[in-house]
Amino acid sequence: MAGRELKALFRAYREGDELAFRRAAQEIVEEEEAKNHLALARDLRSLITGSSSPLAIVPEMALPDPPMDREGEWPLAQVRRPEKHFEDLVLNGKLVDQLQTLADEYRRWEEIDRRGIPRRQRILFHGPPGCGKTSAAEAIANEIGLPLVVVRIDAVVSSYLGETASNLHRIFDFVGKGSWVLLFDEFDALGKARDDATEHGEVKRVITAFLQMLDAFRGPSLLIAATNHDHLLDPALWRRFDDVLEFPRATVHQSRKLLRRRLRAVHHPGVDIDASAARLKGKPHAAVEKVAWDAIRFSVLDDRAAVEQGDLDRAIDQALARPW
Ligand SMILES: Nc1ncnc2c1ncn2[C@@H]1O[C@H](COP(=O)(O)OP(=O)(O)OP(=O)(O)O)[C@@H](O)[C@H]1O
Ligand SMILES: [Mg+2]
Fold first, then answer.
1. How far is the CA of 285 from the centre of ligand 1 (A)?
2. I want to staple 306 with a disulfide (CB 3.0 to 4.6 A). Which of 71, 167, 267, 300 is the partner?
3. CATH top class, domain 77-246
4. Whole-angstrom Cα distance, residue 81 to residue 100?
């Protein structure tokens, strides 16, 4: 039984969060089923639901239809069930605390409102590519049991005058109708000031409209905007967010942890994880993860049962030779 599900189960119990408890229980049951421990899975299921039939312990998360553009042709956002968990991520302790607090706080918004304290509802994630911003937004949605609505900035930005702001309105209208985690991913594409003089007026209008919508944003959803081009953002944008979380590159310690975690499922005697992590210094988590997958892939393609140091060295050479 994986530690991650057990931890989630215990945390849910401590917080009296029944949905989170059921979700963790369901994952444990599904894991036992996948291992073919069918009798145990059946017993666990009937302990929770009172029935041993393979009914879901957690009601399926209802996914709404996404908001569409004016013609009703293109979805302006992608609505999905979050898959990632906090435990899948390797982050520094401060960031883990900040993310966990955001999720805990979300569950207590009613109380926060009652006490007249402003909610933290609009959050900015920034940092270099591949360090976990999108994944963390997904993990928060999972933790609080809400669908993730990822805004498709490419679909929102329209070449028709005034249409980009209208599309933003459509998204904010949609968000007002339910509880989601709304992610403006790679959000700089909307906020960056372009040099092109002909577009300048329209970009300014879009930013002003967005700021107004951000200011007016209320309701039961959590809004997260993520960027890896923080220097391109309009300064007025920063202070509109209730909190700003930084996602730095992986430390050597984090790379070691991530390599160990990803190689756990395969045999890798004689592999020097410490030295490999040290070579990846300054690289993002996504690079470290790719190194682990590539090393495993090399061993599979070579019909070997174990990953060898040579596989890791080759994967690291490739990772160091490309941009991240
Ligand atoms: N902190 C992390 N811990 C574990 N895996 C990570 C972490 N950060 C990134 N990854 C891995 O790298 C992949 C890319 O990460 P993610 O998309 O979350 O990065 P990002 O910060 O949103 O990047 P970008 O700025 O390019 O959008 C993820 O699928 C995940 O598997
Ligand atoms: Mg991202």
1. 6
2. 267
3. alpha beta
4. 19
**Which ligand approaches the C-alpha of residue 184 most closely?**
2
The answer to whether the beta carbons of residues 185 and 150 sit under 8 Å apart is yes
Element (H, E) at 225: strand 222-227
How much is the average pLDDT of 32-59?
76
User: How far, in Å, is the centroid of ligand 2 from the Cα of 132?
Assistant: 7
Q: List residues near ligand 1 (CB under 6 A).
A: 89-91, 129-135, 186, 226, 228, 247, 258, 285-286, 289
Task: Report long-range pairs for 24-33 (Cβ below 8 Å, ≥24 apart).
Answer: 25/57, 26/56, 26/57, 26/58, 28/1, 29/57, 31/1, 31/2, 31/5, 32/1
Cα–Cα distance list, 52 to 26, 44, 155, 216 (Å):
13, 8, 45, 48
CB 260 within 8 A of CB 290: no
Cβ 78 vs Cβ 66: under 8 Å: yes
Contact indicator for 246, 126 with CB cutoff of 8 Å: yes
3-state DSSP assignment of residue 151: strand
Q: 39: part of which helix (H) or strand (E)?
A: helix 38-49
31 Cα to the center of ligand 2, angstroms: 28
- Give the number of the atom of ligand 1 that is nearest the alpha carbon of residue 258: 4
Q: Which amino acid is at 233?
A: L
Domain 252-321 falls in which CATH fold?
Helicase, Ruva Protein; domain 3 (1.10.8)
Contacts of 35 (CB under 8 A, 6+ apart): none
For the CA of 131, the closest atom of ligand 1 is: 8
- The closest alpha carbon to 158, from 126, 216, 205, 223, belongs to 205
Reported as a single tens digit per residue, the pLDDT across 202-234 is: 777 888 888 899 999 988 999 999 999 877 777
Instruction: Please tell me the distance from the alpha carbon of residue 252 to that of residue 313, in angstroms, as a whole number.
Output: 16
